[in-house]
Automatic annotation (TrEMBL):
A Pfam match: DUF6460
Organism: Devosia crocina
Spans traversing the lipid bilayer: 21-44, 71-92
Domain DUF6460: 61-95
Keywords tagged on the record: Membrane, Transmembrane, Transmembrane helix
Family matches, as InterPro entries: DUF6460
Protein name in UniProt: DUF6460 domain-containing protein
Amino acid sequence: MSEDSRPASRSMLERILGDRPVALLVKLALISLLVGVIMAIFGFDAADLVRGAVDAIHDAFRDGAGVFRQIAEYTLAGAALVVPIWLVLRLLRGR
């Protein structure tokens, strides 16, 4: 059924999900597969990500400063890549 021939009123579930449930499941499965492959290529493990999130929450309850310390570390690590790239792009655009 094409987009134009679909009825104007969508079901409550479609309105909540934004798409037909089966189509959404297929899209999410394909995106998940792609992200999983990319994570495997770069050596990331889903369990490590979950463990890191749990540790961050644990640190937040143990001492609030631990969360801010981690946020600062992540920000500095990201800035070490983002700022030089931004600077080079900014200089190249100026010419």
